[in-house]
Amino acid sequence: MISIDSEWPMNKQSLLELLKYPESTWLDWKADFPDGLIRGAKDPQWEKGKGTMLKDMVAIANSEDERNGCLAYGVIDDGGNRTVQGTSKVIFGDADLQQWVENAFDPPFIFSYGKVEWSPGQTVAIVCIEHSPSYPHVCRRNIGEVIHEGQVWYRRGSKNTVALHNELKVMFLGSEPMRVPSPDDPLLDPIREFYAKRDRETSFVLLARMDACLAKGHEIALVPGSRRKILLVNSSNEEESVLMLKRPQSNQQVKHK
């Protein structure tokens, strides 16, 4: 299965690989941008177009799929084949889209936006959306009569829909955590290696101290490719601990100089 990286640049070769896949919980093909965005900010349908694009993005961000997600514009998907037609010209860029997401959702999700030149005159615009444990991403304001404050959009199969009780329960409770009996358990070796490559140190923290560590900028470590926490369960019935991440101290000092 293809692994979509949330960081640019994507290129023609990675797009060619992506075109092998039909729409699903992690992938949404669009023939073009919403009409209001194509015609520019002065168009009366601009806010509707913005709300439509944000809805499509957040639905993937809230997906239960354990892969990073992708929303691509300029491709026709008839269910069996994908055909590149290219996008219309639009007047917003990555910085605009980042601001839209930050203003629209609590918490905002992490994504990258850019374009791939397929052929002269044919450009595919792609939003790569990072799989994140910080979900659901809830609408914090009304936009274009498409998304509304308090809604949680998510993706069921290839359809975007509003989450109801059962879906919200799964999102808030989270997936069943991975449990290990010892901090030296060999199952942790590939997980530590995964995060070391991303410049993160790992350590177990008592669950009672988790919120305090999050407030200091630490992150919860997850089993790579999932939303599963990693718990240390002691046989002596002591309190459970959770694996957490932090940047190396030297990096933190450089950052605050």
Short key terms for the protein model shown above:
257 residues, alpha+beta, Methyltransferase, Cobalt-precorrin-4 Transmethylase, Domain 2, 2 domains, four-stranded mixed β-sheet, 8 helices, 26% helix, disordered C terminus
Overview of this protein structure:
There is one protein chain. With 257 residues, this protein is of the alpha+beta class. The protein folds into 2 domains: 12-172, 2-Layer Sandwich (Methyltransferase, Cobalt-precorrin-4 Transmethylase, Domain 2); 178-255, no CATH class. Helices cover 26% and strands 25% of the residues. The chain has 8 helices and 15 strands. It has helices at 12-18, 35-38, 46-61, 94-104, 165-173, 189-196, 210-215, 249-255; strands at 27-30, 69-73, 75-77, 82-84, 105-106, 111-119, 122-129, 138-139, 153-156, 159-162, 178-180, 201-206, 219-220, 230-232, 241-246. Strands 11, 12, 13, 14 and 15 form a 5-stranded mixed beta sheet that branches. The chain is globular, with a radius of gyration of 20 Å. The termini are far apart.
Short summary of the structure?
This protein is of the alpha+beta class and 257 residues long. Helices cover 26% and strands 25% of the residues. The protein has two domains: 12-172, Methyltransferase, Cobalt-precorrin-4 Transmethylase, Domain 2; 178-255, no CATH class.
